[in-house]
Design a protein that fits this description.
Length: about 100
């Protein structure tokens, strides 16, 4: 009976030591995974910050280009109106329409 009790104690000690070793490995593994996740998160954050900055730059460029396009269109329309008015005045088109 004493031998059986000794065997139970030895098995208990071995299983306790095994549990402690497994717990240590689990903790180390989770720390490594946490480190990788943190590194990946920081990398993703940097990428998203860069993309955000680029997007702001593109939108700013689009705004300035849109303004330049509007200005060019308005100037072209003004020139076309003046040209059409000159043509109408030169050809006396307004008088011809009134006579008809």
């Amino acid at each position: 009976m004493r031998e059986l009790a000794d065997i139970v104690v030895i098995v208990s000690i071995i299983s306790s030591i095994s549990s402690i070793i497994l717990a240590i490995f689990a903790i180390l593994f989770s720390m490594r995974v946490e480190g990788r996740l943190k590194k990946n998160f920081l990398r993703l954050k940097d990428i998203m910050d860069n993309n955000h900055e680029r997007t702001k730059e593109v939108l700013a460029n689009m705004d300035s280009e849109a303004y330049e396009i509007k200005t060019t269109i308005y100037e072209s329309q003004k020139e076309l109106k003046e040209t059409l008015k000159d043509i109408m005045d030169d050809c006396d088109i307004s008088v011809k329409k009134e006579e008809e």
